[in-house]
Specification:
This protein has 733 residues and is α/β, with parallel strands linked by helices. The chain is built from 19 helices and 24 strands. The strands form six sheets. The protein has an eight-stranded mixed beta sheet. The protein has a five-stranded parallel beta sheet with strand order 2-3-1-6-7. A four-stranded mixed beta sheet has the order 21-22-23-24. Helix 13 packs across helix 14.
Length: 733
């Protein structure tokens, strides 16, 4: 290895301590190759030509601090007296010109080809360029964006070496280290013990995790007594929510919920618990390996998936709601590292542990296999991570012939009549609050057949497979009888999003489970084992009954004329006057590639429409009797609120031209399109709401509203994939 090179290493700053510690393996390798002449520097420190000639100089630099696109603002590219010795003296301009001919990308004062020529800046950036360093990039797969590549190449490297667990497909792989090699080198914990809890309560899963960590802690103390080597087992807990404004939704497990349970139910000291999220970082700047560090539990969602490494992590607890779909992600890799890269010869301290509940065992193993592949423990190529900037946006307005409609495109909604005015229909305030829950029919749930099979906890051991393509294999499994119990408060929490009154929810739960308990053969244990199944069926039945009773409320309000179909113009128009689109987004065009002519806005991005919507939009654009068409944006533009919670956002607003006034319209069509595979109960609901809208709309003299409504009548239509052309033809006969 030559003695006159600079190694620029784009590592996290934690690497600095390792390289400056002579006992660390990183430093030992460098000292071995340099004959003990290793010099570790940061960008704020100085080194001389003598250092380069006599020592192995390692400079640690973060990639953003060398971004050539903003180099004028960065100290690394600013003139500095500390590097004068690498450049000709200020008055030797010919020598400056010779150096510039050899390295044309050096930063200068003045122009190279001017009368007096350019004078090279004595900056760290220029120093690196003339030294032509060897560059070693950690997490190399993240440095494939154009800006990152330009920054690296701007240093005139003699060679670039990447370190990555997931090299991109086009990488020139020189050395590939697989899982078997890591295991032989005692760098990872294997086997992986997977415990799949049968309990429906996430607290049982967390309680078992605490017990396992306590057991490992006792064994770690015994190991320290015998060897003097300190290990403090840490439990990582993955939750579903961490945001400050996400607390309170009982369907999801929040970080604060897990923390409170550890403190109150497991007697864990608050100092031993840390939360790591985008909003809160309790482990920032803390040395988790220190014997003075009290942290034994780290609660996170995704913040530790990459770029975090603490080999004291032994237990991974994945907390999920039984009704949601979740998978074990790269977090599994966070518990694989073996402390000090050396086996302890204590079996439990040389293995790691994953606790989940109500997951399918095969799905869990597949998820772990995927997680290990993402950690580079197989012949798996990862995805390239690019830090590309988002395309710039442009603002688009109406076509010139439609400017007269700006700010006037209001459409009717369902509104509640008040003593002096109207207000928009609110599902929670006007529908849900009026439901009489005493009218619900739960006979089907009260006679629900239950499984008599015993609930079981399954614990599996997973190790590396002898076949490289398989990565891991299931080695053994243990089945234990699950300890579950009936908890009506838990049931109440699970149905509160359907029946928002907790007292009524508890009464419903009590009534259902009391009736089930009275059925012969339904012991308390059988009911507890079937708890998740019963809750799922109860939620379905309640949702169905809620919709039935909500429809009754809706129709009664219509009958009493408290609910009307009318315009509300005390807010922004239903169709915006300006939209923002990506500057380089391809425009929607006709089939012959001609530009569309009848869209409301000048610019319609093709990417905003699916294939069926594109076909409909193009076909509409060709209709002579069409005034204009607009693709209504879901969750943003015009909607109709019915008796269900979700609002209906139609796909297209389609006004028909007024034959007497060609620049005005007669009928406004509100069109919802559906694929054949979407003919379901939701579609029937939308059809029913549209029929009500059409019935009420036919009775309204829209022309009396003058400028507030731009047509003389309105009609709602739902069209399917196999009939949309025929339906559009019928509109524009």
């Amino acid at each position: 290895m030559p003695s006159n090179f600079t190694l620029e290493q784009l590592f996290p700053w934690s690497t600095l301590k390792a390289l400056r510690t002579r006992e660390h393996p990183y430093r030992q390798v460098l000292d071995l190759n340099s004959g003990g002449r290793t010099k570790i520097v940061e960008k704020t420190e100085r080194f001389t030509p003598t250092d380069i000639q006599e020592s192995l100089v390692v400079l640690l630099l973060m990639l953003p601090s060398a971004n050539r696109q903003i180099k004028e603002k960065l100290k690394i590219f600013q003139d500095s007296a500390g590097f004068d010795a690498f450049f000709p003296s200020d008055d030797c301009l010919p020598d400056h010109q010779k150096l510039l001919e050899q390295f044309p990308n050096l930063d200068c004062f003045g122009e190279q080809h001017s009368l007096f020529g350019g004078q090279i800046k004595t900056s760290l950036g220029n120093t690196l360029r003339i030294l032509k360093p060897i560059i070693v990039i950690d997490e190399g797969h993240k440095a494939y964006s154009k800006s990152a590549q330009d920054t690296i190449c701007n240093f005139n490297p003699s060679i670039m070496v990447e370190l990555s667990a997931t090299p991109p497909p086009n990488s020139n792989v020189l050395i590939n280290i697989g899982g078997q090699e890591l295991n032989r080198e005692e760098m990872i914990k294997l086997d992986i013990h997977l415990t799949n809890k049968a309990s429906y309560e996430w607290k049982d899963c967390l309680r078992d995790s605490v017990a396992k960590r306590d057991e490992l802690h006792r064994q770690a103390l015994e190991y320290q007594t015998k060897t003097g080597i300190y290990i403090r087992p840490i439990c990582l807990i993955q939750v579903e929510r961490t945001g400050r404004d996400q607390r309170g939704d009982i369907r999801y497990i929040h970080a604060e919920d897990a923390k409170n349970f550890l403190i109150r139910e497991c007697s864990i000291s608050p100092d031993a618990i840390a939360i790591k999220s985008s909003q809160k970082d309790d482990i920032e700047g803390i040395n988790l390996f220190s014997q003075e560090c009290p942290i034994c539990y780290i609660i996170t969602k995704k913040a530790l998936q990459e770029g975090w490494d603490c080999s004291f992590a032994y237990v991974l607890t994945v907390l999920t709601n039984p009704s949601s779909e979740n998978a074990i992600t790269q977090l599994v890799g966070r518990i694989l590292r073996q402390p000090y890269a050396r086996k302890t010869k204590v079996q439990s301290l040389d293995e790691c542990y994953v606790f989940c509940f109500k997951q399918k065992a095969q799905g869990l193993i597949s998820s772990i296999r995927s997680g290990l592949q993402n950690e580079g423990l197989g012949d798996i190529a990862g995805n390239i991570v690019q830090d590309t900037a988002e395309d710039s946006k442009v603002e688009v307005g109406y076509r010139e012939q439609f400017k007269k409609f700006e700010g006037k495109l209001y459409l009717p909604r369902f509104v509640i009549q008040q003593p002096h005015d109207f207000r928009e229909l609110s599902y929670e305030m006007d529908i849900l609050s009026r439901i009489d829950w005493g009218l619900i029919n739960l006979d089907e749930i009260k006679t629900l057949p239950l499984s008599k099979a015993e609930g079981k906890d399954e614990t599996s051991a997973i190790g590396l497979s002898q076949y490289e393509q398989e990565v891991i294999e299931k080695k053994e499994s243990q089945i234990k009888k699950a300890s579950v119990k009936l908890d009506l408060v838990y049931v109440t929490r699970q149905i509160l999003d359907v029946v928002p009154n907790p007292w009524i929810s508890y009464q419903i739960a009590e009534e259902v489970f009391s009736t089930l308990s009275s059925i012969s053969g339904n012991t308390e244990e059988i009911i507890a084992i079937n708890m998740v199944f019963i809750i799922e069926e109860l939620r379905k039945a309640l949702a169905k009954e809620c919709d039935r009773l909500a429809e009754q409320v809706f129709r009664n309000l219509l009958k009493s004329q408290e609910l009307c179909f009318f315009l509300v113009v005390d807010k922004s128009p239903d169709i915006p006057t300006r939209i923002n689109v990506r500057k380089n987004a391809p425009k929607l065009t006709l089939e012959n590639n001609d530009p569309i002519q009848r869209s409301l806005f000048d610019y319609v991005p093709e990417e905003d429409l699916n294939e069926m919507e594109k076909a409909i939009a193009i076909y509409l654009d060709e209709q002579e009797k069409l005034l204009f068409w607009y693709r209504n944006v879901s969750k943003k533009d015009y909607y109709v609120q019915g008796w269900k919670k979700g609002k209906i956002y139609p796909d297209f607003i389609v006004p028909e031209v007024n034959l007497d006034k060609p620049d005005d319209c007669s009928t406004v069509y509100i069109v919802e399109s559906k694929g054949l595979h979407l003919k379901n109960e939701d579609t029937h609901y939308k059809q029913t709401i549209f029929e009500i809208c059409n019935e009420l709309g036919s009775k309204m003299q829209w022309r009396d509203l003058r400028q507030e409504f731009f047509g003389s009548r309105i009609e709602f239509k739902l069209i399917f994939e196999d009939e949309w052309k025929r339906k559009i033809n019928e509109i524009f006969l």
